[in-house]
Amino acid sequence: MGGKVKMEQKSGIIQQILEGEWAMFSTVNGRAIVDPLTKGSLSCQDFPDEFRVHRTAKLMAWSEQTLTCYLADITGALDAGKNLMTHKYARMDNLIPCENHSPHIDKIAVTLLEWQREFMEQYPRLMSGGRTLSGGKPGMDWASFETYMRAELETYSEKTLLSLLNDTETFKKKGKSMSEEIYLHLVRAKGYHSLEEAENK
């Protein structure tokens, strides 16, 4: 029962985070993409369900403590009229200078980048349509995993960064990968039972 209660508590925090994130994300000027069927112009905001699925998978890999810290970041930003999503995408496009020079960012980034590299090598078909690991060009490949990840980390408070750093250390001690945890949640949300099944399909 204890595990079930904790999972419900974690899910409750995630739902609050998603509400705050969507309130921010839905007002960001999204990049237009072309619908292959209608040839019309769409934006990421046209896919709220996909937004929730992908963000939930990411957040499920975090500890309850990190989620609580991040929820405080979201709530505080909303109360102050600050849009963390706007800031993240502006940093991804290098439109504004870095404002967060926390040493925790580099430590977290090194680990997340290595996990993502290993995951991409292990599941090449599953990751064939995803972001490149580093670099990237304007257009469909306008932000690599590293660019996106670092820009988002810069929006976190020092308290959230420290908690997330502790999460990465916990994963490493257990011999686990946060990338694998995230994508496992994602493929299950898409109806697959395992990463291997998704890779083979």
Instruction: Please state the CA-atom Rg, rounded to the nearest Å.
Output: 17 Å
Strand order of the largest sheet: 1-2
Largest sheet: 2 strands, antiparallel
Q: Low-confidence parts lasting 5 or more residues at pLDDT below 50?
A: 32-42
Count of extended strands: 2
Outline type = globular
Termini gap: 35 Å
Sequence of secondary-structure elements = HEEHHHHHHHH
From the helix content, strand content and strand pairing, which structural class follows?
A: mainly alpha
In DSSP terms (H or I, runs of 4 or more residues), the helix count works out at 9
- What fraction of the residues are assigned to beta strands by DSSP? under 5%
Q: How many domains would you count in the coordinates?
A: 1
Average pLDDT, all residues: 89
In percent, how helical is the residue content?
Answer: 55-70%
Describe this structure in words.
This protein is mostly helical and about 200 residues long. It has one domain (about 1-200). Helix content is about 60%, strand content about 0%. The protein has helices at about 1-25, 50-60, 65-80, 85-90, 105-120, 145-155, 160-175, 180-190, 195-200, and strands at about 35, 40. It has a two-stranded antiparallel sheet with strand order 1-2. A hairpin with a 6-residue loop joins strand 1 (about 35) and strand 2 (about 40). Helix 1 crosses helix 2 (about 50-60), helix 4 (about 85-90) crosses helix 6 (about 145-155) and helix 5 packs across helix 7 (about 160-175).
